[in-house]
Amino acid sequence: MVNWSSLDTVFLDMDGTLLDLHFDNHFWLEHLPARYAEHYDLSPQQAKDYLIPMIMAERGSLNWYCTDYWSERLSLDITGLKAEVGDRIGYRPHVIDFLNALKTSGLRSVIVTNCHPDPLALKLERTGLASRVDAIVSSHELGKPKEEPAFWEDLQTLTPYRRESTLMVDDSFPVLESALRAGISQCLAVLAPDSKQGPREAHPDIPCIHHFDEVLPALRERSSLSTGQ
Hints:
Layout: E1 9-12, H1 22-40, H2 44-56, H3 62-65, H4 67-74, H5 78-84, H6 95-105, E2 108-113, H7 117-127, E3 135-138, H8 150-155, E4 166-170, H9 173-181, E5 186-190, E6 208-209, H10 216-227
Parallel strand pairs: 1-2, 1-4, 2-3, 4-5, 5-6
């Protein structure tokens, strides 16, 4: 599934890969419409009918992920509203074990996320995730989302890497397809990003897992080789 021996760098998505996507789905589909309805004196359903098509129209663009954009467009403090449900932020199953195994394997681990810096800071504060990886890059630093193949070239300016020895792990098929087009040698898809929803269908051309326990044995084997145990 993954050729660990050929790697020196592992790029990791955050939301839906390391962290439970339930937080984000609950916020955009439930909490934001409820608070928007209160603010503008609408019914919850009226708010959903107005907001969700507007949000979905930006899918795949940097605006989709940008809290500044949505705060201005909706005249609401999106980051503040996210903090209201911050107790829902949490790790996906087996993630901490996986990150620990990455550390002992000698591989460089870099979070490469489309998350805006403001909610990113909230999630890092809640999880302590920054201490478990070597670096974190938000696509907002580069002005384009991971879905754009040019993102991967620009990423070299922030965290240099070799395409032929890099793995990208993500729950987004469009992102993984973009990475492959940009020459990333290996990709791995996560099929169960939201703990409150069932898994998705597998991608026909990209190796897929439900949880990281499926790749932990092989990664730990590399770790034991690298440490001589």
